Amino acid sequence: MDSMVLGQILAGLFFLAILGTLMFGYLVAFALGGLSILFAVIGWMVGAFDMNLLSSLATRFFGVITNPVLIAVPLFVFMGVVLEKSRIAEVLLTTMGQLFGTLRGGLGFSVVIVGTLLAASTGVVGATVVTMGLLSLPAMMRAGYDPRIATGVICAAGTLGQIIPPSTVLIFVADILQGANAAAQMELGNFAPDTISVGDLFAGAFFPGMALAFLYGLYIAFRAFMNPAACPALPMTAEEKRGLGRRAVVALVPPMALIIAVLGSIIAGVATPTESASVGSLGAIFLMIVKMLADHHLDDGSGNAEVLEKRLMTFWLGFLAVLVAVGFFGGAFGLLTLLIVAVAVGSVAVLMTGALRARFVEVIRDTNKSTMSITSMIFIILLGATAFALVFTRMGGGELVQGMLEDMPGGQLGALIVVMAIMFVLGFFLDTFEIVFIVVPITAPILLMMGLDPILLGVLIGINLQTSFLTPPFGFSLFYLRGVAPKSISTGTIYRGVIPFVIIQLAMLVVVYMFPKTVTWLPDYLFRSPPAVVAPAEPAAEQSGAESDAGGGAFDLDGGTPEGEGGGAFDLDGGAPEGEGGGGGAFDLDGGAPESEGGGGGAFDLDGGAPETEGGGGGAFDLDGGAPETEGGG
Question: Could you tell me the CA-to-CA distances from 441 to 30, 183, 267, 422, 445 in Å, in that order?
Fold first, then answer.
């Protein structure tokens, strides 16, 4: 049998073996790594795999743990754990319940709002569902809510952390799609593709995530209108109404400040995810310290609750104003915001008493342990998935998957439906990270080669995995809530409660695919500069592709964007706008970023690198693909 065919058969068996071991509960990282080595040996024995390729695993592992994008993951995990342990969610749920409780469906609205805020400030799913299940579900049942509505909205709102930035899942998806998009574009002959960043995917997921939250609230409003008894309003005494506005400000402003510092800086493009995550970690510590001080002030009987609320409201509004002013006038949320938060943390920490300081140290110690545990789990799975991807693709698994998807009826849409269906079903049995690390690397390049936008694909993956988290009978979110729900609520009630929200999710998947601008308009607006406007050229000098070639001897085969070429420029690129000219002999084969090539004769360029200037005296000879540089001078 041909070694290529044999390799593809082994690759298929390899994939099935991985799924089988994971579904039987074997440790994911060791199943991935162990089976990768086992099938590599089998492939080598039958001539379908070169064992020398395994020597590249060390380099690949080193690349994973030194990836600057992934440094943001432990920081975001730390931020989420700090906020969980500081019980900010409890304050939010209580206050929002009082604020909206007098409306029909008000408690449902409060759950959606709190779920959205926690998703946008922590990105943690399981903890959010459990917290809201412990606090909101009993209150909703006492108020007379339909158990199906109560359980459904808690499960749905708790999973928004999968799609609303700063989701850790989206960070890994963006990192994988960046490499997949580069590989796909090179296969298509584009050697200078647009890079896909975490900021692109965060910006793309922002609107669909907010739209899902809005649709959840709209569904609650519809049910409250059609059946008021299912979502009754809560009576509120005059004493409970007193100071409600202050309590709402004190509860809402801290997470809003964190969202502005973290998510706002990423989407605005003024800070990288890692920089924003570091600010968010310090900001979460700051929020925890302030809350601990306030609780301690009330617990020891030394303060009046109303006076304390007024002081906290003034403090948080002032802090939020400073934060916004820094971003608006300073133009950067990076170092300056980090310094502001660091000074605030240090100042508040000085005020802590010995007992309170000991409590703070205990919480931070527990937070560090949880962060290390979660981060280690994620990264060891990623290392195992790296070994899996190497062995699977080198056995011919990539060609096998490509052939299967390309043969699907319906072209791009048919292939996308198959991939989404596979991820959806796997979401019943596997964790989100396992699906992302195993399925996305082997399917994304094929879908991208078929013309699917990478940002659109990333958002579709996020929504699909979130839907899988919700769908009976195996959705993870359902089990999280089942673990904390009272025994009077049956599992069937939870299943029936989430069905309308699953329908909303599936509808959003269809809308996002049919109208991709819902995803791509914000990244395009924030991170994509508009094409340069070039004055019309003289008819005699016009060539194909709306460009102007001036000066003697310009030889142009590109079909790219408007550019100016003069004096002996030899151009085969299809890149971004550039200026090529000046004395004879500039020879350009790149497809890179905007650059200027010219000067004296003999500049010879084959790079595909970053913007650079090449020129000067004769004889510059360049074959690099490196960082910006200046080459010239004999």
Answer: 19, 11, 25, 14, 7
